[in-house]
Amino acid sequence: MSESTTTDPVLTVRDLRKSFTLHTIDGRTVVSLHGVDLEVGRGEHVALAGPSGAGKSSFLRCVHRSYLPDAGSVVLHTDDGPVELTGLSDREMARLRGRELGYVSQFLSAPPRTAPLEVVAASARRRGMNRADARDAAAEALQRLSLDEALWDVDCSVLSGGERQRVNIAAGTVHPPRLLLLDEPVSALDPVNRERALELIASLSASGVAVLAVFHDLDAMHRLATRVVRFADGHIDRIGSATDVLGKAA
């Protein structure tokens, strides 16, 4: 299933295919994506829905280039023109991720003995901010997500799961990138902090940030998504509003 072209695309994916070989079992090949087409436009929030194993996370990781697809095209539209991500070297891809492409997973990956303020400030610097402005922006992001200031200078390894997830969200959204990928970003948060995080994510559309997200949280998809893309068996099964695809909100 394909879709119509958006007027101001940030991401264009065509005929994306990905399979995995199960070496630990019997060497069989499992196909995760069967020729998926998708576009995400400026200021759009596109949520990926579907059961576990449907291909949502594989699709997200192929866009991020955590997975290298078997075939197909993944194009990020930048100010300098379209960039085909599948053909970039690892070094070029790392540089592009720093400037143009953010990724927030369920788990924070921080260098050893690194504090939350430095993790978030480093993300802002990679996106073009100078050191002083990056530190100010990092403080603002952590404040917005209500991370206790007493924790800003401690090693991230001592933080709770919910605190780490807030640092991850702050790093992904500070001085927002052109395209933000979210993989269950609020799964470890209590109701109050979940609300703060969802409000922050919702505000990105006004800045023109394109968001591509995996949520199992139906309420979050109803609140945030301009479109929902439902995956089934490695294909796009349906595209539409949250109500059309998921039914009415509870």
UniProtKB/TrEMBL annotation:
User: GO molecular function: any one?
Assistant: ATP binding
UniProt-recorded name of the protein: ATP-binding cassette domain-containing protein
Q: Where is the ABC transporter domain?
A: 11-250
Task: Return the Pfam families for the record.
Answer: ABC_tran (PF00005)
**Keywords assigned by UniProt, alphabetized:** ATP-binding, Kinase, Nucleotide-binding, Transferase
Output the PROSITE patterns linked to this UniProt entry: ABC_TRANSPORTER_1, ABC_TRANSPORTER_2
Lineage here is: Bacteria, Bacillati, Actinomycetota, Actinomycetes, Mycobacteriales
Signal peptide boundaries: none
The family database entries (Gene3D superfamilies) matched by this protein are listed as: P-loop containing nucleotide triphosphate hydrolases
**PANTHER family xref list:** IMPORT ATP-BINDING PROTEIN
Check the record and name the SUPFAM superfamilies matching this protein.
P-loop containing nucleoside triphosphate hydrolases
